[in-house]
Protein: CHY-type domain-containing protein
Organism: Gossypium anomalum
Amino acid sequence: MEGVCETKPCTTELKSVEFGNHQNGSLMETGLGNYGCSHYRRRCKIRAPCCNEVFYCRHCHNESKNSPESSPLKQHDIPRHEVEKVICSLCDTEQDVSDPLNIEIKVQQYCINCGVCMGKYFCGKCKFFDDDVSKNQYHCVECGICRTGGKENFFHCNKCGCCYSNLMREVHRCIEKAMPRLPYLLRGTLVPFAQSLFAICRNCGRKLDKEIASTPMPAVYQNKMAWVLCNDCGATSNVQFHIVAHKCPSCESYNTRQTRGGPDGGSCSEMVR
């Protein structure tokens, strides 16, 4: 599979793991960084409930099933919250993604066969594993999804139905349930409404401009670049890395997601995609 990088450990390495002891450091570190795809580093794959095929993540599935070579009649996205099975990358054991007895859902962070940790970050609600914890992932109960950037740095607006940076708390203006509707608005004929929403957020953008200008990066990071995906206009751009946020050069929105580059996996709170 394109983007997959994995190196199978020898059998003796797996046998040296103290199975069943989730606190053993070797379980957390064994195989760390050697498995995953271009989207996530993780030590498990998922079985897609829609087509029963195995992929490293939902992005791998969607890229494969929606490629130009695929038949339009067979193109589809994976229903991410319906994933039920994961496969350990180290021992190939297929298992339930959540505890079938509902005793302790987090126990499924570890393989039931070899005991290795399948992802340092694990969300049983989102069926999500990730070994790159530098993104400071957290699950927002109100949003119903995992986000990045650290829960302490963001607040959830119940009216908008979305999380925003604490920097925006004083200037944020609400449009009821605007954010959950936005992807559908952009696909349809209500683009002017979406544009008006962006205009309302210009004050937030100006505040972030000032915050970035007043927060110079250390010299070691001043020439670092990062690739970002804009969640508003869809553009992919290579921009100068900054710890506060990244602005899309195409539409000047800060609603971006770092995809690669920079010293870590992400600096802004965005939906884990």
